[in-house]
Specification:
The complex is a heterodimer of chains A (652) and B (253). Chain A has 652 residues and is an all-alpha fold. Helices cover 76% and strands 1% of the residues of chain A. Chain A has 25 helices and four strands. In chain A, the strands form two sheets. In chain A, strands 1-2 form a two-stranded antiparallel sheet. Chain A has a two-stranded antiparallel sheet with strand order 3-4. The longest helix of chain A has 49 residues, at 14-62. Chain A is globular and about 95 Å long. Chain A starts with a helix and ends with a helix. Chain B has helices spanning 45-52, 82-88, 103-113, 119-132, 136-139, 152-164, 182-195, 208-214, 232-237, 242-248; strands at 5-16, 19-30, 34-38, 62-70, 73-74, 89-92, 170-174, 200-204, 217-222, 225-231. In chain B, helix 6 (152-164) packs parallel to helix 7 (182-195). The chains are: A mainly alpha (652), B alpha/beta (253).
Chain lengths: 652, 253
């Protein structure tokens, strides 16, 4: 550097000027990339700031403690009450219920995919799980509202099926793909040697799975479950549509047929009707702050577990058992007893007596009979559960798809796709909604792609791992874990009101862009990391500058990966309702918007309103759901094809 | 061979997809002796070894023909219990592969999966196996520590102890010393020498000195074929085949 400066003191030669210019250019490029990367952190800070700014009033007026522990949420009463304790309880109960449903199914399915399935079955099951992940949450909600709640109402003979149970089952289904794919990954990446070592001793396949593979993959499975929990807690639309939304604590607490209301649903329902600046408005932002903090803690802990797993593998040193073996044994026995007792109480209280007896009998038979069963039989029993889990997951997907396809197909017509809606959407078409959704996602990706790719380039190419990258990565993780409804609130408070852009297409595009930014950054980072280091060294060794190396050698082979990430993001954005419902959409508009400053119609929001606010017109509801589903799945399918094509060609 | 054979193969062929990895291998493995399989890389010695406990079953698209018998029973017969077979035929791998559990749990794993529950009995088996594998003195004070904290040589002896704990008849060793330093190697070789009183050992090795040191019988393989098999002394001093002689004297390729 000093040498360089000295030279600059004399009369610079032509080549020195060029060198200096190119040095400046490199610096400028690096700075730009740094800002794109740092953008994620800025956004997180802004989200927190703006939520706090608008929520602060209520904390001051009511007091944080009263706000959190108050047992009545009645913001529109004559004497308004702002206690979110029932909402927190509702969120927790729904989440616990969803995990009771999802964890056994997901683990069974993950074990099946990684250890039992033949390659051909795997080829069917893995895309099926990905498909399950691709269904938009409003479509889940629609299915839950029409089919699931009805099923629950009839089966258990209830006045309404909109209950804790319905919400838990639906959220459980939505959490399945996350838990399955992450834990399947964890089980599959247990070193082969462990498996061979166990089998070579003469352990059965089931013993190998249950005693070696699953324990070795435990931290990954834990992370998978935590991520699933994060997904369940942050979900808005689906849970809003099936939970009944009464802000009460179930009485008794284990009454799974009670309606309840979550934090997210409260925001989804009330945000649209509140007057800006009122105490109620502020209270909703307070709710959002609480929600954000809960999800951030959950997601950060999952990320921390996964990262530690990637870096260190199973910890090499410290397997110092915390307690001595005998203490652990007795602890284990005590927890077993507690679980059994809790189960008995629960069964006696909530379930029909025949179900309770059946479960108790089965449990008892297992407990006393297992010592007499040979390992072969245990394996057969275990494998049949595992296969059943995989089968149920597949069946759930098929039931949802067939319901929507069969009922939606009759609505599909040229008119439906090209005409504006009539009679509140019961008749006519959905053309403006389709176009509106396309506008929204194209705008969102146009904003998110440059920012995301820039950030990924900075993270992979320009820095070593250090404090700044850690900060940026944490920012990206936090953004990724932020519930979509929180993006909606932020978009409303910051873009719509503060920046005075108004409810408009642009506001929706920016909000969606912020939401998909982490996906773009991650997928781009992955594809950049897959470019061998030797290519970079080869280019640099020829005297190419950093930017020349990146733009001519590193980026071109990474393009398919980046494109895949972009399409995945488009698919995700197209299905989202919560971020756009306060920022960008109107329910009905006969015309297409002239500029980005006008609001638009959008498919997910249209479906949401049709399903919850418009009685009748069932064909058009299903038709809308089908079009949305096809659109989103279409994007995902393209992404998968691009990915597979790229994988095949790159392998030669 | 005068001794009674515990494992016999007749015309064993094996294909990975289209690639033929073993070609009509016929051999006898005498009981309570150490048999070494030597030969250049890729000659099929590890593949043959993994036939004896049917670990090749784990790999997709493997086809095996011919007959392999253990105690005069065909191990590919439809009524064979693979789990029992693997209990009788233990295996030590090239890279030490202790489970990510404690030292104690690693050794107790085998007896446990075969139904031993009694704590005192497990303790006894663990101690015996560790003593037998000549590692007891080094680990007796830290049985509850992670096995992954041991050195490579210790890990390998732990894996041998783990194998001994299920009391197999045959122990297969797939280049057990290739990842170890000379001192650790010497310890394992001493151990093998002692093991043959109670067990039949089949060891795959790259190292001809090692084969000469530890084995009673040696089979030389080349390109999937068993070229020659006999007493180690005879193979090393008076090989019948020219290929064997070339390999042993280092005049190869």
């Amino acid at each position: 550097m000093e040498k360089f400066m000295k030279k600059m003191n004399g009369v610079p030669s032509a080549s020195e000027v060029t060198a200096h210019l190119s040095f400046l250019k490199e610096q400028a490029i690096k700075t730009v990339f740094f800002f794109t990367a740092f953008f994620a952190v800025i956004v997180v800070v802004f989200i927190l700031l703006f939520l706090l700014r608008d929520g602060y009033v209520i904390f001051e007026k009511v007091g944080v403690l009263t706000f959190l522990s108050g047992t009545a949420w009645a913001p529109t009463a004559v004497v308004p009450l702002y206690g979110i304790f029932p909402l927190i309880v509702g969120t927790l109960l729904v989440t616990i219920g969803s995990m009771v449903f999802a964890v056994p199914l997901s683990l069974g399915c993950a074990i099946y995919i990684s250890e039992l399935a033949s390659p051909r079955v795997k080829q069917v099951l893995k895309p099926a799980v990905e498909l399950l992940a691709g269904i938009p949450s409003v479509v889940y909600g629609f299915f839950g509202l029409i089919v699931l709640t009805n099923f629950i109402r009839v089966t258990f003979d209830l006045p309404t099926g909109e209950t804790w149970l319905a919400a838990s089952v639906l959220l459980g289904i939505m959490a399945l793909p996350t838990i399955i794919s992450v834990s399947e990954d964890a089980i599959s990446s247990v070193p082969r040697e462990y498996k061979e070592g166990s089998l070579a001793i003469g352990a059965t396949r089931w013993q190998t799975i249950s005693r070696v593979l699953v324990p070795a993959a435990l931290s990954g499975i834990a992370a998978a479950i935590i991520l699933g929990i994060g997904r369940a807690i942050g979900e808005t639309m689906a849970v809003l549509m099936v939970a009944g939304n009464a802000a009460i604590i179930p009485d008794p607490l284990w009454n799974i047929f009670s309606p309840l209301r979550t934090l997210t649903a409260t925001l989804g329902i009330e945000m649209g009707e509140v007057s800006v600046g009122s105490d109620h408005y502020s209270a909703l932002f307070g709710v959002a702050v609480v929600l954000l903090i809960i999800t951030l803690i959950i997601n950060l802990s999952a990320v921390a577990i996964l990262r530690r797993m990637k870096e260190g593998g199973p910890s090499r040193q410290a397997y110092k058992p915390f307690l001595s073996t005998s203490v652990r044994d007795s602890l284990k026995r005590i927890t077993e007893m507690i679980v059994v007792i809790a189960l008995i109480i629960f069964l006696l209280a909530a379930a029909p007596w025949y179900l309770a007896v059946a479960i108790l009998l089965a449990g008892g038979a297992w407990y006393f009979g297992r010592n007499r069963l040979s390992q072969k039989h245990i394996q057969t029993i275990a494998f049949s559960f595992v296969v059943a889990a995989a089968f149920i997951v597949l069946a759930i997907l098929l039931i949802i798809l067939q319901d929507i396809i069969i009922n939606g197909l009759p609505a599909l017509s040229w008119e439906f796709l090209t005409q504006p809606p009539k009679d509140l959407g019961r008749a006519g078409g959905i053309f403006p909604a389709i176009i509106g959704t396309l506008y929204l996602v194209m705008g969102a990706i146009a904003i998110a792609l440059p920012l995301g790719v820039g950030a990924a380039i900075y993270l992979v190419e320009y820095t070593r791992e250090g404090r700044i990258t850690r900060l940026i990565r944490t920012g990206v993780d936090l953004l990724n874990g932020t519930p979509s409804i929180v993006f909606g609130l932020f978009g409303f408070a910051f873009i719509v009101l503060y920046l005075k852009i108004g409810v408009s297409m642009l506001a929706g595009q920016i909000t969606l862009a912020l939401m998909v930014l982490p996906t773009v950054i991650r997928t781009t980072e992955e594809s950049l990391k897959n470019i061998p280091q030797s290519l970079r060294e080869g280019s640099l060794a020829l005297g190419a500058t950093k930017w020349q190396t990146i733009s001519r050698v590193v980026l071109p082979p990474a393009v398919p990966g980046i494109v895949t990430g972009a399409i995945l993001s488009i698919g995700r954005a197209a299905g989202e309702t919560a971020p756009i419902m306060f920022t960008a959409v109107v329910f009905s508009s006969r015309f297409l918007p002239d500029s980005v400053f006008q609001p638009v119609m959008a498919l997910p929001y249209h479906l949401f309103i049709l399903a919850t606010n418009v009685p009748g017109g069932s064909t058009n509801k299903y038709g809308t759901a089908l079009v949305l589903l096809l659109l989103v799945i279409g994007f995902y399918a393209v992404a998968i094809i691009v990915r597979n094509h790229f994988q095949n060609t790159s392998r030669g | 061979m005068s001794e009674s054979a515990i494992i016999t193969t007749k015309n064993v062929n094996l294909w990975y997809n289209e690639k033929r990895a073993l070609e009509s291998v016929s051999m006898k493995v005498p009981k309570n002796k150490v048999t070494a399989l030597i030969g250049p890389s890729g000659c099929g010695k590890s593949t043959l070894l993994r036939c004896f406990n049917r670990l090749n079953d784990l790999i997709d698209h493997v086809k095996i023909t011919g007959e392999i018998t253990l105690d005069d029973k065909n191990i590919h017969a439809p009524n064979t219990d693979v789990v029992m077979l693997r209990k009788k035929v233990g295996m030590v791998f090239q890279k030490p592969n202790p489970f990510p559990k404690s030292i104690y749990e690693n050794v107790a794993y085998g007896p446990r999966v075969h139904g031993v529950k009694d704590k005192a009995e497990l303790d006894k088996i663990v101690e015996q196996s560790l003593r037998h594998a000549a590692i007891w003195d080094e680990v007796k004070d830290r049985l509850n520590d992670s096995a992954l904290g041991l050195s490579g040589g210790q890990q390998q002896r732990l894996c041998i102890a783990r194998t001994l704990a299920v009391e197999p008849e045959v122990i297969l060793m797939d280049e057990p010393c290739s990842a170890l330093d000379p001192i650790a190697t010497a310890k394992i070789e001493n151990l093998i020498e002692r093991l043959k009183q109670d067990y039949t050992v089949i060891i795959v090795t790259h190292n001809m000195q090692q084969a000469a040191r530890v084995s009673d019988y040696t089979g030389f393989m080349y390109l999937g074929k068993l070229i020659e098999c006999g007493k180690t002394v005879q193979i090393f001093e008076h090989p019948k085949e020219e290929l064997t002689e070339n390999y042993i004297t280092g005049r190869f390729g």
